[in-house]
Amino acid sequence: MRPISFKRHRFPPDTIRLAVWLYFRFTTSLRDVEEMLAERGIDVTYETVRCWANKFGTAIAANIRRRRGPADSVWHLDEMVVRINGKRMYMWRAVDKEGEVLDVLVQKRRNKKAALKLLRKLLKNQGFVPDEIVTDGLASYPAAMKVLGCQKRHKSGRLRDNNRVENSHLPVRRRERKMQRFKSQGQGRMPSR
Question: What is the pTM of this model?
Fold first, then answer.
């Protein structure tokens, strides 16, 4: 775990961590976080919370991922359509058997190249090949797995086999509604848990 420096910030580190956690963990707006902190006697503006989320959000998420340990040996992959700044994009997601989000990738296309990019990124970040990879019926997955040589681990099945990843889309949809659609790819990739 890498230490995060909170030097030259007026508020204590616990307050900053709380604000960032509230913003990312629950689908709250910046103004909602401002109100929740005000109820606890902390006078901070929503703009300050936004700056904290941008500055410390990725570092805190990286520390949580490091502490979490290795992923489970069964991965579930799926893609969903999102509108980002009025353009149709595909958000590729991978979760493990417990429902923990392993990786998110936003692409313009829904093809073999995009599936291959997600799988390579997953294999690199996780450091091992899972026992089983569960997907829906999209033909891009078997084609990408054939290139990587892990097609024997692929299980393309019924919708209920892939419910874990389908349920992981729900927080993203809630955040999308709360933000009144995404304006950039980065907003779509934000942690939803």
Answer: 0.66
Q: Whole-angstrom Cα distance, residue 6 to residue 185?
A: 27
At 162-177, the pLDDT tens digits run 666 777 766 776 776 6
User: Who's near 74: CB < 8 A, 6+ residues apart?
Assistant: 96, 97, 130, 131, 132, 133, 134
Give yes or no for a contact between 175 and 27, defined as CB atoms under 8 angstroms apart: yes
Helix (H) or strand (E) holding 125: helix 112-126
Q: Specify the CATH number for 74-189; select among 3.30.420.10, 3.40.50.150, 3.30.590.10, 3.90.25.10.
A: 3.30.420.10
Query: pLDDT digits over 125-149, tens only?
Result: 888 888 888 888 888 989 999 998 8
- Residue 170 to residues 8, 154, 167, 174, Cα–Cα distance (Å): 37, 25, 6, 6
Nearest-angstrom CA–CA distance, 31 and 22: 11
- Residue 154's region, left for phi above 0, alpha for psi from -120 to 50, else beta, is beta
